[in-house]
Amino acid sequence: MPRRSIPNLQETIITETIKIGAKDGANKVSTIKLAKKCGITEPAIYGRFKKKFDLLFAAYIHINEQIDMLLREIDWENISTLKDVKDLWYKLFNYAISNPEYTNYFQSFRRTTNHDSSILNEHRELYVKYAKIIMAINLNKKQISDIEYLKIWVNWVNVSLKLAQMISDGILPLDERTKDLLFKLIFGENLEM
Hints:
- By secondary structure, this protein is mainly α.
- 72% of the residues lie in helices and 0% in strands.
- It is built from 9 helices and no strands.
- The chain has helices at residues 9-24, 31-38, 42-46, 52-72, 82-98, 100-112, 115-137, 146-168, 176-187.
- The N and C termini lie far apart (66 Å).
């Protein structure tokens, strides 16, 4: 039987991995189920990804690249007001709400793997820089270490993604009042806009 050519097969595999992982959890992605969804054999998956973790990580990186593109569009040097921070957060938060499969997979992967050591080390300087900019605007004059800034950034991201999931799942309403309240919850109670 001749081999069937599937255009953009690697992209198809990653997209289907995200869909399955978003629904079932990243650690529950079955390569047999994935192969059937993609219309290929399981060895075709392992011909592109040596281990299942490589596949799951590639799907995570695909999502992370989308988020990084959004972050790179931001003029970080000119973020100087709380309104700038809010606009930035809305942009990222709306992306998470608009892409629930990506958000669910991203969160699932982060909960079930050692992503911290591989991803955070790669992005450490940027995440610390982002957190420092936001904390300076939030009138936090307390001196803290870079590792504490990194933890703050990761916490903001985790809470934001969880809240985006709740909106996508219909648990929270999607309106400006809710987003304003969530922004204050994440970045501080006493924010003046």
